[in-house]
Design goal:
CATH topology: TorD-like
Shape: globular
CATH superfamily: TorD-like
Number of strands: 0
Number of helices: 10
Order of helices and strands: HHHHHHHHHH
CATH architecture: Orthogonal Bundle
CATH class: Mainly Alpha
Largest sheet: none
Strand content: under 5%
Length: about 240
């Protein structure tokens, strides 16, 4: 019996899947919530990124390793008390990304591209922050009243990519291929000009924090690094 080859996903389907991946990454690097925890423990996040390893026409071996680590976290904690686990994650997040004085991992682009990452006690609104904020404002986006983060925070940049890919999905749905292609070019420019330039250093620093309570962030940082590389490679094929 001849097996049918799986059909390539449409641009609309691919943009939808990519937007969901960027959303999950953004949620993972904001302060943890019960909503994030439930999505992770349900297995939905792991399955979504596992689909990316087979649905994209680029190498997904590094992403598969991150997904395996995430699945191990789920298996180890699926029977845990949710409130206790959430509190553990909040403490771990604080140690990693907030800290007292300098956090172990500075989650701001400016700390990697505008300084040496070590010399400033506080991230400042340097050139990188200003450029990122300008990119947001082109689309009418600004800081919300309940979000005091600087524009170049890792989660803010990830959420912006979620926004752009969701806009792309809507453009494909409405039949506006020109707008969809322009949004793909904007995504590629943001990845190559901003997030892609510092995500490797950021995730390397996360990996250096050896604490079992940080297992979720170790897994998600591996997924983040691999996914940025995969999505950048995919967008390069669209923008040639």
């Amino acid at each position: 019996m001849i097996k049918r080859q799986p059909e390539e996903p449409s641009q609309y389907q691919l943009a939808g899947h990519r937007s969901r991946c960027w959303r999950a990454l953004a949620l993972a690097f904001y302060e943890p919530t019960s909503g994030l925890l439930e999505e992770v423990l349900s297995g939905d996040v792991g399955r979504m990124f596992a689909e990316a390893t087979s649905g994209f026409s680029v190498d997904g071996s590094d992403l598969a390793a991150g997904v395996a680590a995430l699945n191990a976290f789920v298996a180890a904690n699926e029977d845990s008390d949710r409130e206790t686990l959430l509190e553990t994650l909040k403490v771990a997040y604080s140690r990693l990304f907030i800290g007292y004085g300098l956090p172990f991992v500075i989650p701001y682009e400016s700390a990697y591209l505008d300084t040496d990452g070590q010399s400033s006690a506080e991230p400042v609104m340097g050139p990188s922050s200003v450029a990122v904020r300008r990119a947001y404002r082109i689309h009418g986006l600004g800081a919300s009243a309940d979000n005091a983060e600087l524009p170049d925070h890792i989660a803010m940049e990830l959420e912006f990519l979620y926004f752009l890919t969701d806009c792309e999905r809507k453009a494909w749905a409405s039949g506006d291929a020109l707008a969809a292609r322009e949004l793909q070019r904007e995504q590629w420019a943001f990845l190559t000009g901003h997030l892609g330039r510092w995500v490797a250093d950021f995730t390397r620093r996360v990996r250096e924090y050896e604490d079992s309570d940080c297992a979720l962030y170790l897994a998600m940082s591996d997924i983040l690094r691999a996914y940025v590389a995969m999505d950048t490679a995919l967008l390069a094929t669209f923008t040639e």
